């Protein structure tokens, strides 16, 4: 699997593409660059319409739709419940439907390992960027430790570009966040507690609360979790 990745080149090509077909070409490049079996981007726009592109076989895509696997897929369920990337090994595969789904996925060469990045955008938009591969747990752990940040960045770039193709989309206008607001939301998004964030930034928890509330107001968010999701989807913070 990949030991060195030219991330800048992928992002430059992604930023320059002007068609959905161009995104399909880039996702194949992601597979080649990271030396993984598959990569997939699944996008649900603000109207509830589904789009996807990636390297899974057409047989598996049709099988997934035919069986309505979206209802039992632990990856989809897990990512709806989280803001952080999801390693498939950490999901609950114990139910009978989940085990049957996994067996079917393996039969269609999806891979026994996977890493999925949930992305939330404006007006209810939801997306997943996933890479999957066949390898042992130790190899996969080393891969995700080395490349997780690159994959998160690519996932958010894909989503930002996909939003450009959404019909009748009007651009969002948000007030810029201050450096301290960005730092606070980034650390919270990484799983730090408020006490840990305050300690890391060498500020009081009261001052931290002021930064968070200010960021929340600028982002039009109803709570801190919503503010983090908005900041991630707009590319204002990256984890």
TrEMBL record:
**One BP term from GO:** regulation of DNA-templated transcription
The record ties this protein, via SUPFAM superfamilies, to: C-terminal effector domain of the bipartite response regulators, Pheromone-binding domain of LuxR-like quorum-sensing transcription factors
**What is the name attached to this protein's record?**
Putative transcriptional activator protein RaiR
Provide any one GO MF term from the record: DNA binding
Query: Entry's InterPro entries?
Result: Sig_transdc_resp-reg_C-effctor, TF_LuxR_autoind-bd_dom, TF_LuxR_autoind-bd_dom_sf, Tscrpt_reg_LuxR_C, WH-like_DNA-bd_sf
**UniProt entry tagged with the keyword Transcription:** yes
Q: Read off the CDD domains from this record.
A: LuxR_C_like
* A Pfam short name: Autoind_bind
Keywords in alphabetical order: DNA-binding, Transcription, Transcription regulation
Task: Classify the source by domain of life.
Answer: Bacteria
Annotated HTH luxR-type domain residues: 170-235
